[in-house]
Specification:
Length: 191
């Protein structure tokens, strides 16, 4: 493997450790999470995959670490950035091709897993999408508690409502939402 290209790859991945997630930046959240932090928690959550689901845990873990990799080049494009979904997918796919070229044969594996996630046709890809949404809910809830801004991040709960399909992840999401509602009701009565 070409060590210069590997170093370039490492530098690109390293960008994600410092890139703040767009949704939180646009909402003026102080000290928002990075893209790498988001992917790391998702990877840790992949340990929760239950053997009875017949899911490939290794692929899920890999997918969590790959799914936002293109953002080191294109940035964190959200639905509110004004870029149509087809254009977003095209930009991210081109970025992934460029990233994966740096890794020779190993890059084709990464590109294949990324494209599998993007297509959302396999149970593993759908599970990772559910983890992505779960992490979004948890992060929004953490910010509301940390910054005492209960209810200010409601849109994240609304946009994910009913979209998480896996029963276990859906239960976790419902538990987070219920706990948040209790705190919201408490903050309303305290006013």
């Amino acid at each position: 493997m070409d060590t210069k290209k590997l170093q370039q790859f490492m530098e690109l991945v390293g960008r994600l450790k410092h890139m703040k997630r767009t949704g939180w930046v646009k909402r003026n959240i102080p000290d928002p999470e990075t893209i790498a932090g988001h992917m790391y928690r998702m990877a840790m959550l992949s340990f929760l995959v239950d053997g009875k689901d017949n899911l490939d845990k290794t692929k899920i873990m890999q997918m969590t670490l790959i799914h936002d990799l293109a953002e080191c080049i294109v940035g964190d494009i959200t639905p509110y950035c004004g870029i149509p979904p087809d254009e977003k997918h095209r930009l991210e796919d081109e970025a992934m091709e460029d990233i994966c070229k740096l890794l020779g044969d190993k890059g084709s594996d990464i590109l294949h897993i990324f494209r599998e996630y993007e297509k959302q046709e396999t149970p593993e890809a759908q599970y990772v999408k559910d983890l992505d949404r779960l992490d979004l809910l948890m992060q929004a809830f953490e910010y509301e508690k940390r910054d005492n801004i209960f209810g200010k991040l409601e849109e994240f709960f609304v946009t994910t409502n009913g979209k998480i399909k896996h029963p276990f992840i859906s239960k976790l999401a419902n538990d987070i939402t219920s706990e948040r509602q209790i705190l919201l009701n408490g903050s309303d009565t305290a006013k």
